[in-house]
Specification:
321 residues; five-stranded antiparallel β-sheet; 20 strands; globular; alpha+beta; single chain
């Protein structure tokens, strides 16, 4: 079967609707299923039913009703029930930050010495450490084609393109070898971070300020589509590509994750309940603005793709008035 994805689209005068996207063409879900839900959120909330129904129908889809993707506006695919994010989950990315910003114990080291220190630290963390997970807010979530408003009081807005996981089956204390059975599909995320707000020098004992640095409206960008898990046999064999105004900034494989997708699901489900329709952002690879010494500014356009998933993010940036 040719790869397909699910999204929420609209045309002039028509309310947004859930649809199948395949090879640049769009088919409303209502023309594929006899009892189609009114939203993609409802599809993922009952993925154990609708996933197989959609797959079965797509084995022999209708020949009529398809229209070019270019005829439609693309919206946020669905609002997640819960949004989780993995922090510092790519080896090269974390090492780059250690080289640029330093960390306690590396203040007197040269850049090369910091890189060697960071590599050793990351190897140890991968072998004996635990994932770091933060929780996102609904008010920060936006679609992949929405304009990103850069807050007037943020001086270092940075991009973080990454793989996102959509949960399709309730998960609580899931073992590692069964974790991927709980995935409905995958989408693209861009987790925007205000770099200057990450640390709290007034209360350094409290660590990073995840609310201030990641929660402005539109900072958690999802979509455009969700590619069903059946088309992604190994989420650690995908490739992330982010460009700003056409210039490649991030170009890295998901095999550089410190903790793989299955490990993140295992870890999160050990401490809380994962439900159908929840989303996990799995962390960002190297190539962020802090690495390039260039942050987002008014007029920038970010384009993001993950090779192996359907769709591309196209996100214009505008300074807050």
């Amino acid at each position: 079967m040719m790869i397909y994805a699910l999204g929420t689209l609209s045309r002039s005068g028509i309310e947004p609707f859930p649809a199948v996207v395949q090879d640049g063409m769009v088919l409303p879900l209502g023309l594929l299923l006899e009892e189609a839900p009114a939203s993609l959120g409802a599809v993922f909330a009952d993925w154990q039913r609708f996933g197989p129904e959609i797959d079965s129908a797509m084995a022999s889809p209708p020949s009529s009703g398809w229209r070019p993707e270019a005829d439609f506006a693309i919206h946020l695919p669905f609002m997640p029930g819960q949004l989780f994010g993995a922090g510092a989950n790519y080896r090269k990315h974390v090492i780059d930050i250690i080289v640029i910003k330093g960390t306690p114990g590396t203040e007197d080291l040269s850049p090369d010495e910091r890189r060697a220190w960071g590599a050793k630290f990351m190897d140890k963390r991968a072998a004996t450490g635990l994932p770091f997970i933060w929780v996102g807010l609904h008010s920060a979530i936006a679609g992949s084609h929405d304009t990103l408003i850069l807050p007037r009081d943020v001086s270092q807005p940075d991009w973080e393109l990454e793989l996102a996981v959509v949960i399709g089956k309730a998960a609580r204390r899931v073992p590692l070898d069964r974790a991927l059975e709980h995935v409905a599909g995958y989408t693209i995320a861009n987790d925007i971070t205000a770099r200057e707000l990450v640390d709290r020098p007034d209360v350094p004992q409290m660590g990073m300020d995840w609310m201030r640095c990641k929660s402005a409206p539109g900072f958690n960008i999802l979509g455009p589509y969700v590619t069903p898990a059946r088309f992604v046999p190994d989420p650690q064999k995908l490739h992330i590509d982010l460009r700003v105004n056409g210039q490649v900034m991030q170009d890295e494989g998901t095999d550089d994750m410190i903790f793989c997708v299955a490990r993140l699901i295992e870890f999160i489900s050990h401490h809380t309940q994962l439900n159908p329709g929840d989303v996990i952002m799995t962390g960002s690879p190297s190539g962020n603005g802090i690495h390039h010494g260039r942050m987002l500014r008014d007029g920038d356009v970010m384009t993001g793709e993950i090779v192996g998933l359907v769709g591309r993010q196209v996100t214009p940036c505008k300074e807050e008035g």
